[in-house]
Amino acid sequence: MGWTVTHKTPGTSVRAFFEDEFHSDWPDGRIGRVIDCAAFLHEAYVAFEVTYPDGRRKEVSAIVCLLKQGQSAYYNNFGYKDMSEDMGPIASNCPERILNLLTPTDNKYALSWRKRCRDNIERRRGRVPLRKGVVIRFGERLAFPGAGYEDTFRVLDAKKLVFSDVSGTRRFKLTKHVLHDEPWQVVNL
Question: Are 120 and 52 members of one domain?
Answer without folding.
Answer: yes
